[in-house]
């Protein structure tokens, strides 16, 4: 797996994945940017949320659960001094479907957190990562 990052201007960069997809990352206006895209640290959280949501959907579908929608809110706290690493990350899953088994949803979230989501497990080496979920029928 690889990616290429190219400087555009000021504090804006284009990131292109090995699979050919691209995204612009930029800084805030007060930091010299034009606010054209997410910040690099936001990209880390988005990747973590996407990785874990993918796992939860996949696990539930394999378990024959009638999952209709999954969304995840990811909130993080950072250290106050450089390097401003994440110190706490909380992921809250909202899983929608008719007749969902609460234990299976809980297990899917746990499996993603503890076994499958590489991004979550990697960030968990530096930050306290917690999870919660709710069912929506």
UniProtKB/TrEMBL annotation:
Taxonomic superkingdom: Bacteria
InterPro entries membership: KH_dom-like_a/b, OsmC/Ohr_fam, OsmC/Ohrsf
Protein name: Peroxiredoxin
Organism placement in taxonomy: Bacteria, Pseudomonadati, Pseudomonadota, Alphaproteobacteria, Rhodospirillales
């Amino acid at each position: 797996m690889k990616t290429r990052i190219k400087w555009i201007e000021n504090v804006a960069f284009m990131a292109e994945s090995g699979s050919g997809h691209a995204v612009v990352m930029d800084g805030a206006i007060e930091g010299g940017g034009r606010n054209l895209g997410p910040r690099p640290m936001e990209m880390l959280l988005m990747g973590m949320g996407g990785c874990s949501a993918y796992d939860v959907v996949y696990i539930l579908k394999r378990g024959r659960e009638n999952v209709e929608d999954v969304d995840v809110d990811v909130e993080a706290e950072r250290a106050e001094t450089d390097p401003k690493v994440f110190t706490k990350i909380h992921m809250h899953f909202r899983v929608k479907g008719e007749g969902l088994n609460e234990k299976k949803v809980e297990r899917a979230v746990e499996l993603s957190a503890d076994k499958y989501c590489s991004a979550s497990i990697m960030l968990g080496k530096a930050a306290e990562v917690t999870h919660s979920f709710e069912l929506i029928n």
